[in-house]
Amino acid sequence: MRRSTMSRSIHPDFWRKAGDSKVREIARCYGRVSRCRICGSLELAPKFRVAFPDFGPNASHAWPIGLEPPVPYWNIYGCGRCGVHFPNPMPTADEVYEYYANQQDYDEWEEAFYVADTPDRQHYWSRFAEKLTRLNGGSGRLLEIGPAAGHLLHAAREQGWSVVGIEAAPKFGKILRRRGIPTHQGLLETFSCKGQFDLIVMLDVLEHLNDPIGDLERCRRLLTSNGRVVIATCDIGSVAARYYGLKWRQLVISHTFYWTKASIQVALGRAEFDLVQLSSVRWWDPERPLERRQHRKEFGKLLVRKAVQLTWLPVTRRSRLAHTFQSTFRDGRLDYWMTHKLGDQTVMSDVVLAVARSRGFAAGADLPDHRASPKV
Ligand SMILES: [Zn+2]
User: Fold this and answer.
1) Centroid of ligand 1 to alpha carbon of 35 (angstroms)
2) Ligand 1 centroid vs 374 CA: distance in angstroms?
3) Which pTM was predicted?
4) Which pLDDT band, with edges at 50, 70 and 90, does 73 fall under?
5) Ligand 1: distance of its center to the CA of 327 in Å?
6) Is the pLDDT of residue 4 over 90?
7) How close is the Cα of 333 to the center of ligand 1, in Å?
8) pLDDT digits (tens, 9 = 90+) for 277-326
9) Domain positions in the chain
10) Which of 30-34, 163-167, 256-260 has the lowest mean pLDDT?
């Protein structure tokens, strides 16, 4: 077991594990990053702080670099060349894994936003699975890393895919097994299986990893020679991230890398992938004309939302009649749409989606280090 990185800016559980001051002193240097872990640049500078737990000005998790939060925090550094941001010192691989491996039960928020199998969610994931099928030119073998409650894998299996999931958090592993989805409980580096995959999907995963380039290389070795990865991750270079600044919804303690389009391309190249498509999770489609149509539709929806925010919402705040109408119309559906959906920062698309093709790999050679036998 590697020694944990200990400093004032680390999660309190990590701090407690530090033990005596000598260990702390050694550990303080352990995760210090002097080169960008994606592009290798030395142009690193502190940008902001992310505090743990929920604490900060304006109900945000993030603090300006000049202020000292009264709770543990990460110092987030940005790379001047590729634009990626990450905590410095960086949490170790063990710390990152333990954070998820200790999560035994999901809470009410996760039940509502991840677990519940609602018709809206079924529709969304079924459409997403259809896109994967068109991308692949038919169904095949699909591996999803971090499938959470397994909605995508369930939908893909319905469409003829043979599916496998790798899930670090036991709270989601239980659900996957209950749904009958073959699951490896643990990490990508401890996973092995017979045969290779046509497609590997990582949605909202790349921002949680300790060694993203190493994991992308592991993915490549699990793919067929022509296989693809589909990656969706938060984009700190997006319009939404720039607009919201320190109030950007993605600034949370569990994120180890805040990506940009440039840094994703660098990481994929270093892991021997060729970029095929760089898009947004909101309008991505493997067929370009359909993608362009969806892009226009999303832009139109954004304009409508902005108009409602500037006109209708102020009216409901001033007029009790308008407010009552909004909160009671069709059992509060209107209220839900106006207040929750309109306030949702995802409308500005801060999640980038990349499709990349493996540059090929000699099957069977130089396979990843297998530390556990998979149950798939
Ligand atoms: Zn960089």
Assistant:
1) 8
2) 34
3) 0.81
4) confident
5) 47
6) no
7) 45
8) 999 998 999 999 999 999 998 888 888 888 888 888 889 889 999 989 88
9) 12-100, 108-285+349-358, 289-347
10) 30-34
Tens digit of pLDDT for each residue in 170-193? 999 999 999 999 999 999 989 988
Distance between Cα 120 and ligand 1 center (Å):
38
Give 211 Cα–ligand 1 centroid separation in angstroms.
14
42 CA distance to ligand 1 centroid (A)?
8
Query: Mapping DSSP to helix (H, G, I), strand (E, B) and coil, where does residue 230 land?
Result: strand
Task: Please give the Cα distance from 313 to 316 (Å, whole number).
Answer: 5
Q: How far is the CA of 14 from the centre of ligand 1 (A)?
A: 27
pLDDT at 124 over 50: yes
Residue 197 near residue 332 (C-beta atoms within 8 A): no
Question: How far apart are alpha carbons 104 and 327 in whole angstroms?
Answer: 36
Distance 58 CA to ligand 1 centre (A): 30
CATH T-level topology, domain 108-285+349-358 = Rossmann fold (3.40.50)
CA 32 – ligand 1 centroid, Å: 15
Residue with tokens 């737990």: 53
- Residue spans of alpha helices (H) in the chain: 12-16, 21-30, 93-101, 108-110, 119-136, 151-158, 170-178, 212-222, 239-244, 261-270, 288-310, 312-318, 320-328, 333-336
